[in-house]
Amino acid sequence: MSSPIKTPGVITCKAAVAWGPGEPLVLEEVDVDPPNPMEIRVKVVCTSLCRSDVTQWESKAQPALFPRIFGHEASGIVESVGEGVNEFEVGDHVLTAFIGECKSCKHCLSGKSNICQTLGLERRGLMHSDNKTRFSIKGKPVYHYCAVSSFSEYTVVHSGCAVKISQTAPMDRICLLSCGVAAGLGAAWKVADISKGSTVVIFGLGTVGLSVAQGAKLRGASRIIGVDTNPQKYEKGKAFGVTEYINPDECNEPVQQVVKRMTDGGTDFSFECVGDAGIVSTALQSCCDGWGLTVTLGVPKMRPEVSAHYGLLLSGRTLKGSLFGGWKPKSDLPQLAEKYLREEIQLDDLVTHDLPFNNINEALNLMKEGKCLRCVIHLPK
Protein backbone atom coordinates (compact mmCIF):
# COMPACT_ATOMS: atom_id res chain seq x y z
CA MET A 1 0.00 0.00 0.00
CA SER A 2 1.19 3.51 -0.76
CA SER A 3 1.54 5.81 2.21
CA PRO A 4 -1.07 8.58 2.49
CA ILE A 5 -0.12 12.01 1.15
CA LYS A 6 1.05 14.13 4.04
CA THR A 7 -0.89 17.36 4.39
CA PRO A 8 1.43 20.30 5.04
CA GLY A 9 1.00 22.04 8.37
CA VAL A 10 1.90 25.41 9.82
CA ILE A 11 5.63 26.24 9.78
CA THR A 12 7.20 28.46 12.44
CA CYS A 13 10.24 30.35 11.13
CA LYS A 14 12.14 33.64 11.28
CA ALA A 15 10.98 36.70 9.37
CA ALA A 16 12.11 40.32 9.31
CA VAL A 17 8.98 42.15 10.40
CA ALA A 18 8.32 45.87 9.97
CA TRP A 19 6.23 47.21 12.85
CA GLY A 20 5.94 50.79 11.59
CA PRO A 21 7.05 53.18 8.81
CA GLY A 22 10.84 53.40 8.70
CA GLU A 23 11.29 51.45 11.93
CA PRO A 24 14.15 48.91 11.92
CA LEU A 25 12.99 45.44 10.94
CA VAL A 26 12.78 42.94 13.79
CA LEU A 27 13.59 39.25 13.37
CA GLU A 28 10.50 37.57 14.77
CA GLU A 29 9.14 34.04 15.01
CA VAL A 30 6.19 33.91 12.62
CA ASP A 31 3.72 31.18 11.77
CA VAL A 32 3.36 30.50 8.04
CA ASP A 33 0.16 28.75 7.02
CA PRO A 34 0.15 25.88 4.52
CA PRO A 35 -0.70 26.84 0.93
CA ASN A 36 -4.35 27.20 -0.04
CA PRO A 37 -5.62 25.84 -3.37
CA MET A 38 -3.50 27.10 -6.29
CA GLU A 39 -0.79 28.35 -3.93
CA ILE A 40 2.71 27.13 -3.12
CA ARG A 41 4.85 27.50 -0.02
CA VAL A 42 8.43 28.43 -0.77
CA LYS A 43 11.62 28.17 1.28
CA VAL A 44 13.31 31.46 0.42
CA VAL A 45 16.99 30.99 -0.44
CA CYS A 46 17.96 34.52 -1.50
CA THR A 47 16.17 37.83 -1.73
CA SER A 48 17.60 41.03 -3.17
CA LEU A 49 16.63 44.41 -1.82
CA CYS A 50 14.72 46.65 -4.23
CA ARG A 51 14.30 50.41 -3.88
CA SER A 52 10.51 50.01 -3.81
CA ASP A 53 10.83 47.89 -0.65
CA VAL A 54 12.54 50.84 1.02
CA THR A 55 10.08 53.38 -0.40
CA GLN A 56 7.04 51.49 0.88
CA TRP A 57 8.68 50.66 4.22
CA GLU A 58 9.41 54.36 4.86
CA SER A 59 6.15 55.73 3.44
CA LYS A 60 3.68 57.36 5.79
CA ALA A 61 1.36 58.28 2.93
CA GLN A 62 0.18 54.72 2.40
CA PRO A 63 -2.43 52.96 4.58
CA ALA A 64 -0.89 51.76 7.83
CA LEU A 65 -0.38 48.10 6.86
CA PHE A 66 1.71 46.98 9.82
CA PRO A 67 3.06 44.64 11.02
CA ARG A 68 4.27 43.69 7.58
CA ILE A 69 6.86 41.50 5.87
CA PHE A 70 8.48 43.21 2.88
CA GLY A 71 10.61 41.76 0.08
CA HIS A 72 9.63 40.69 -3.44
CA GLU A 73 12.80 39.92 -5.45
CA ALA A 74 13.47 36.33 -4.48
CA SER A 75 14.56 32.86 -5.42
CA GLY A 76 13.60 29.77 -3.48
CA ILE A 77 12.64 26.11 -3.39
CA VAL A 78 9.07 24.80 -3.36
CA GLU A 79 8.39 23.26 0.07
CA SER A 80 4.75 22.29 -0.46
CA VAL A 81 1.96 22.77 -2.99
CA GLY A 82 -1.73 23.47 -2.53
CA GLU A 83 -4.66 21.68 -4.07
CA GLY A 84 -4.95 22.06 -7.84
CA VAL A 85 -1.31 22.98 -8.43
CA ASN A 86 0.07 20.86 -11.27
CA GLU A 87 2.97 22.88 -12.64
CA PHE A 88 5.13 22.81 -9.50
CA GLU A 89 6.50 19.97 -7.40
CA VAL A 90 8.24 19.92 -4.06
CA GLY A 91 11.92 20.72 -4.67
CA ASP A 92 11.43 22.88 -7.76
CA HIS A 93 13.55 26.03 -7.93
CA VAL A 94 11.47 29.16 -8.48
CA LEU A 95 11.53 32.91 -8.84
CA THR A 96 8.77 34.92 -7.20
CA ALA A 97 6.87 37.53 -9.21
CA PHE A 98 5.20 40.64 -7.75
CA ILE A 99 2.64 40.54 -10.57
CA GLY A 100 1.21 37.25 -11.72
CA GLU A 101 -0.12 35.74 -14.90
CA CYS A 102 -3.36 33.77 -14.78
CA LYS A 103 -3.30 33.16 -18.57
CA SER A 104 -7.09 33.41 -18.81
CA CYS A 105 -8.18 37.01 -18.11
CA LYS A 106 -8.76 39.71 -20.75
CA HIS A 107 -5.28 41.19 -20.33
CA CYS A 108 -3.41 37.89 -20.29
CA LEU A 109 -5.17 36.83 -23.50
CA SER A 110 -4.77 40.19 -25.25
CA GLY A 111 -1.12 39.85 -26.21
CA LYS A 112 -0.91 43.59 -25.43
CA SER A 113 -0.54 43.73 -21.66
CA ASN A 114 1.07 42.13 -18.60
CA ILE A 115 -1.42 43.68 -16.16
CA CYS A 116 -3.20 40.50 -15.11
CA GLN A 117 -6.72 41.25 -13.88
CA THR A 118 -6.67 38.32 -11.46
CA LEU A 119 -3.11 38.44 -10.11
CA GLY A 120 -2.16 42.08 -10.63
CA LEU A 121 -0.18 44.28 -8.25
CA GLU A 122 -1.52 43.57 -4.75
CA ARG A 123 -1.58 46.73 -2.60
CA ARG A 124 -3.61 45.68 0.47
CA GLY A 125 -1.10 43.34 2.09
CA LEU A 126 -3.26 40.27 1.47
CA MET A 127 -3.35 37.18 -0.73
CA HIS A 128 -5.17 37.40 -4.06
CA SER A 129 -7.32 34.32 -3.53
CA ASP A 130 -9.12 35.05 -0.27
CA ASN A 131 -7.99 38.52 0.89
CA LYS A 132 -6.39 37.03 3.99
CA THR A 133 -2.80 36.68 5.19
CA ARG A 134 -0.71 33.51 5.51
CA PHE A 135 1.52 35.00 8.23
CA SER A 136 0.73 35.48 11.89
CA ILE A 137 2.47 36.22 15.19
CA LYS A 138 0.77 34.79 18.27
CA GLY A 139 -2.43 34.43 16.29
CA LYS A 140 -2.48 38.01 14.98
CA PRO A 141 -2.16 38.54 11.20
CA VAL A 142 0.97 39.98 9.60
CA TYR A 143 0.51 41.75 6.27
CA HIS A 144 2.18 40.67 3.02
CA TYR A 145 3.96 42.89 0.50
CA CYS A 146 3.12 42.55 -3.21
CA ALA A 147 1.78 39.06 -2.38
CA VAL A 148 5.39 37.84 -2.05
CA SER A 149 6.97 38.84 1.33
CA SER A 150 10.41 37.33 0.83
CA PHE A 151 12.00 38.75 4.00
CA SER A 152 11.00 35.47 5.62
CA GLU A 153 12.52 32.00 5.69
CA TYR A 154 9.26 30.67 4.24
CA THR A 155 6.50 32.40 2.32
CA VAL A 156 3.30 31.49 0.49
CA VAL A 157 2.63 32.77 -3.04
CA HIS A 158 -0.03 32.11 -5.64
CA SER A 159 1.20 29.59 -8.21
CA GLY A 160 0.57 32.24 -10.86
CA CYS A 161 3.12 34.48 -9.11
CA ALA A 162 6.03 32.03 -9.32
CA VAL A 163 8.20 30.88 -12.19
CA LYS A 164 10.08 27.59 -12.40
CA ILE A 165 13.77 27.98 -13.23
CA SER A 166 16.68 25.67 -13.94
CA GLN A 167 18.34 24.13 -10.89
CA THR A 168 21.68 25.12 -12.41
CA ALA A 169 20.89 28.84 -12.01
CA PRO A 170 22.73 30.45 -9.06
CA MET A 171 20.02 31.44 -6.60
CA ASP A 172 22.00 34.40 -5.26
CA ARG A 173 22.09 36.11 -8.66
CA ILE A 174 19.05 34.90 -10.57
CA CYS A 175 16.81 36.53 -7.93
CA LEU A 176 17.57 39.92 -9.53
CA LEU A 177 15.31 38.94 -12.44
CA SER A 178 12.31 39.01 -10.10
CA CYS A 179 12.02 42.77 -10.49
CA GLY A 180 14.68 45.39 -11.19
CA VAL A 181 16.81 43.89 -13.94
CA ALA A 182 13.83 42.47 -15.81
CA ALA A 183 12.04 45.83 -15.50
CA GLY A 184 14.96 47.67 -17.09
CA LEU A 185 15.60 45.19 -19.88
CA GLY A 186 11.90 45.02 -20.72
CA ALA A 187 11.57 48.81 -20.81
CA ALA A 188 14.34 48.90 -23.42
CA TRP A 189 13.27 45.87 -25.44
CA LYS A 190 9.50 45.43 -25.12
CA VAL A 191 8.16 48.87 -24.20
CA ALA A 192 10.50 51.19 -26.13
CA ASP A 193 11.70 48.59 -28.67
CA ILE A 194 15.03 50.43 -29.10
CA SER A 195 16.45 50.16 -32.60
CA LYS A 196 20.07 50.02 -33.78
CA GLY A 197 21.77 53.41 -33.97
CA SER A 198 19.30 55.09 -31.59
CA THR A 199 20.22 57.75 -29.05
CA VAL A 200 19.13 57.17 -25.45
CA VAL A 201 19.15 59.16 -22.21
CA ILE A 202 18.59 57.45 -18.85
CA PHE A 203 17.70 59.37 -15.69
CA GLY A 204 18.94 57.40 -12.67
CA LEU A 205 21.75 54.86 -12.89
CA GLY A 206 20.63 52.41 -10.24
CA THR A 207 19.92 48.76 -10.98
CA VAL A 208 16.93 49.58 -13.18
CA GLY A 209 18.68 52.36 -15.10
CA LEU A 210 21.80 50.26 -15.69
CA SER A 211 19.59 47.44 -16.92
CA VAL A 212 17.96 49.84 -19.40
CA ALA A 213 21.49 50.75 -20.52
CA GLN A 214 22.37 47.10 -20.91
CA GLY A 215 19.26 46.52 -23.00
CA ALA A 216 20.00 49.58 -25.15
CA LYS A 217 23.60 48.46 -25.70
CA LEU A 218 22.49 44.98 -26.76
CA ARG A 219 20.07 46.58 -29.24
CA GLY A 220 22.90 48.59 -30.78
CA ALA A 221 22.12 52.10 -29.50
CA SER A 222 24.78 54.54 -30.73
CA ARG A 223 24.77 56.84 -27.68
CA ILE A 224 23.60 56.09 -24.15
CA ILE A 225 23.68 59.14 -21.90
CA GLY A 226 23.43 58.53 -18.16
CA VAL A 227 22.10 61.22 -15.82
CA ASP A 228 22.84 60.83 -12.10
CA THR A 229 24.08 62.98 -9.22
CA ASN A 230 26.53 60.27 -8.12
CA PRO A 231 29.63 60.32 -10.39
CA GLN A 232 30.61 56.81 -9.24
CA LYS A 233 27.55 55.54 -11.10
CA TYR A 234 29.16 56.57 -14.41
CA GLU A 235 32.17 54.35 -13.79
CA LYS A 236 29.81 51.46 -13.10
CA GLY A 237 27.63 52.42 -16.02
CA LYS A 238 30.41 52.11 -18.60
CA ALA A 239 30.36 48.33 -18.19
CA PHE A 240 26.63 48.33 -19.00
CA GLY A 241 26.88 50.53 -22.09
CA VAL A 242 26.69 54.12 -20.81
CA THR A 243 28.76 56.22 -23.22
CA GLU A 244 28.33 59.72 -21.73
CA TYR A 245 27.47 61.15 -18.35
CA ILE A 246 25.70 64.23 -17.04
CA ASN A 247 25.73 65.27 -13.38
CA PRO A 248 22.77 67.66 -12.87
CA ASP A 249 24.56 69.22 -9.88
CA GLU A 250 27.32 70.39 -12.20
CA CYS A 251 25.06 71.88 -14.88
CA ASN A 252 24.53 75.62 -15.28
CA GLU A 253 21.29 75.08 -17.17
CA PRO A 254 18.38 72.60 -17.05
CA VAL A 255 19.47 69.04 -17.84
CA GLN A 256 17.05 68.80 -20.76
CA GLN A 257 18.83 71.71 -22.45
CA VAL A 258 22.16 69.95 -22.04
CA VAL A 259 20.74 66.76 -23.56
CA LYS A 260 19.18 68.62 -26.46
CA ARG A 261 22.43 70.41 -27.25
CA MET A 262 24.37 67.13 -27.11
CA THR A 263 21.96 65.32 -29.42
CA ASP A 264 20.83 67.94 -31.96
CA GLY A 265 17.39 68.49 -30.48
CA GLY A 266 16.86 65.53 -28.17
CA THR A 267 17.27 61.77 -27.99
CA ASP A 268 15.16 59.11 -29.66
CA PHE A 269 14.42 57.49 -26.29
CA SER A 270 14.34 58.75 -22.73
CA PHE A 271 13.90 56.69 -19.55
CA GLU A 272 12.90 57.91 -16.09
CA CYS A 273 14.28 55.41 -13.56
CA VAL A 274 14.49 57.57 -10.44
CA GLY A 275 10.97 57.44 -9.08
CA ASP A 276 10.41 61.21 -9.20
CA ALA A 277 7.33 62.55 -10.94
CA GLY A 278 9.11 65.86 -11.59
CA ILE A 279 11.84 64.12 -13.56
CA VAL A 280 9.21 62.61 -15.86
CA SER A 281 8.67 66.07 -17.34
CA THR A 282 12.44 66.59 -17.64
CA ALA A 283 12.78 63.24 -19.41
CA LEU A 284 9.93 64.10 -21.77
CA GLN A 285 11.61 67.39 -22.66
CA SER A 286 14.89 65.56 -23.31
CA CYS A 287 13.60 63.42 -26.18
CA CYS A 288 13.13 64.83 -29.67
CA ASP A 289 10.12 66.26 -31.45
CA GLY A 290 8.23 64.03 -33.86
CA TRP A 291 9.06 60.56 -32.54
CA GLY A 292 10.73 60.95 -29.16
CA LEU A 293 9.54 58.34 -26.67
CA THR A 294 9.81 58.64 -22.89
CA VAL A 295 9.30 55.60 -20.70
CA THR A 296 8.73 56.05 -16.98
CA LEU A 297 9.39 53.07 -14.72
CA GLY A 298 10.38 54.54 -11.34
CA VAL A 299 8.10 54.37 -8.29
CA PRO A 300 7.53 57.91 -6.89
CA LYS A 301 8.31 58.41 -3.21
CA MET A 302 5.93 61.39 -2.99
CA ARG A 303 3.67 63.53 -5.18
CA PRO A 304 2.68 60.88 -7.74
CA GLU A 305 1.00 63.34 -10.11
CA VAL A 306 2.80 63.98 -13.40
CA SER A 307 2.56 67.38 -15.09
CA ALA A 308 3.87 68.41 -18.48
CA HIS A 309 3.14 71.13 -21.01
CA TYR A 310 0.67 69.85 -23.62
CA GLY A 311 2.91 71.22 -26.36
CA LEU A 312 5.42 68.44 -25.66
CA LEU A 313 2.82 65.88 -26.71
CA LEU A 314 1.40 68.03 -29.50
CA SER A 315 4.84 68.07 -31.10
CA GLY A 316 4.82 64.28 -31.40
CA ARG A 317 6.46 63.03 -28.25
CA THR A 318 5.04 59.97 -26.49
CA LEU A 319 4.99 59.21 -22.76
CA LYS A 320 4.56 55.56 -21.77
CA GLY A 321 4.45 53.82 -18.44
CA SER A 322 6.06 50.46 -17.79
CA LEU A 323 5.38 47.89 -15.07
CA PHE A 324 7.90 45.05 -14.87
CA GLY A 325 9.16 46.00 -18.32
CA GLY A 326 6.01 44.71 -19.96
CA TRP A 327 7.05 41.10 -19.30
CA LYS A 328 4.48 38.43 -18.55
CA PRO A 329 6.28 36.63 -15.72
CA LYS A 330 5.39 33.01 -16.47
CA SER A 331 5.66 33.38 -20.25
CA ASP A 332 8.76 35.57 -20.41
CA LEU A 333 10.95 35.20 -17.30
CA PRO A 334 12.21 31.69 -18.21
CA GLN A 335 13.68 33.15 -21.42
CA LEU A 336 15.50 35.86 -19.47
CA ALA A 337 16.84 33.25 -17.06
CA GLU A 338 18.17 31.26 -20.01
CA LYS A 339 19.81 34.38 -21.44
CA TYR A 340 21.64 34.82 -18.15
CA LEU A 341 22.77 31.20 -18.10
CA ARG A 342 24.07 31.64 -21.66
CA GLU A 343 25.91 34.80 -20.48
CA GLU A 344 23.93 37.00 -22.87
CA ILE A 345 22.87 39.41 -20.09
CA GLN A 346 24.72 40.61 -16.98
CA LEU A 347 23.45 40.20 -13.43
CA ASP A 348 26.54 39.54 -11.32
CA ASP A 349 28.07 43.02 -11.61
CA LEU A 350 24.88 44.61 -10.28
CA VAL A 351 25.35 42.89 -6.91
CA THR A 352 27.47 45.13 -4.70
CA HIS A 353 26.82 43.39 -1.37
CA ASP A 354 26.02 39.89 -0.08
CA LEU A 355 24.73 39.85 3.49
CA PRO A 356 23.30 37.25 5.89
CA PHE A 357 19.62 37.50 6.88
CA ASN A 358 20.55 38.77 10.35
CA ASN A 359 22.06 41.89 8.73
CA ILE A 360 18.97 42.91 6.77
CA ASN A 361 18.80 46.34 8.43
CA GLU A 362 22.34 47.02 7.22
CA ALA A 363 21.09 46.33 3.69
CA LEU A 364 18.24 48.82 4.14
CA ASN A 365 20.68 51.48 5.34
CA LEU A 366 23.01 50.86 2.38
CA MET A 367 20.09 51.35 0.00
CA LYS A 368 18.86 54.48 1.81
CA GLU A 369 22.35 56.00 1.70
CA GLY A 370 22.81 55.18 -1.99
CA LYS A 371 25.80 52.93 -1.26
CA CYS A 372 24.60 49.83 -3.06
CA LEU A 373 23.02 48.72 -6.32
CA ARG A 374 21.65 45.34 -5.34
CA CYS A 375 22.25 43.83 -1.95
CA VAL A 376 21.49 40.10 -1.85
CA ILE A 377 20.25 38.71 1.46
CA HIS A 378 21.13 35.07 2.07
CA LEU A 379 18.62 33.26 4.24
CA PRO A 380 19.66 30.37 6.52
CA LYS A 381 20.03 27.04 4.74
Q: What structural class do helix, strand and pairing data support?
A: alpha/beta
What's the total helix number?
11
Counted beta strands: 17
**Beta-strand content:** 15-25%
Key terms:
alpha/beta, single chain, 6-stranded parallel β-sheet, 381 residues, 17 strands, 11 helices
Topology:
Layout: E1 11-17, E2 26-32, E3 39-48, H1 51-58, E4 73-81, E5 93-96, H2 106-110, E6 135-137, E7 140-142, E8 154-158, E9 162-164, H3 171-174, H4 180-191, E10 199-203, H5 207-218, E11 223-227, H6 232-238, E12 244-246, H7 255-262, E13 269-272, H8 277-286, E14 293-296, H9 310-314, E15 318-321, H10 329-341, E16 351-356, H11 360-368, E17 374-378
Parallel strand pairs: 10-11, 10-13, 11-12, 13-14, 14-15, 16-17
Antiparallel strand pairs: 1-2, 2-6, 3-4, 3-8, 3-17, 4-5, 5-9, 6-7
General description of the model:
The chain is of the alpha/beta class and 381 residues long. The protein has 11 helices and 17 strands. The protein has helices spanning 51-58, 106-110, 171-174, 180-191, 207-218, 232-238, 255-262, 277-286, 310-314, 329-341, 360-368; strands spanning 11-17, 26-32, 39-48, 73-81, 93-96, 135-137, 140-142, 154-158, 162-164, 199-203, 223-227, 244-246, 269-272, 293-296, 318-321, 351-356, 374-378. The strands form 3 sheets. Strands 3, 4, 5, 8, 9, 16 and 17 form a 7-stranded mixed sheet that branches. Strands 12-11-10-13-14-15 form a 6-stranded parallel sheet, sandwiched between helices. A 4-stranded antiparallel sheet has the order 1-2-6-7, with no helix packed on it. Helix 5 (207-218) links the parallel strand 10 (199-203) and strand 11 (223-227). The longest helix is centred in the last third of the chain and has 13 residues, at 329-341. The two termini are 34 Å apart.
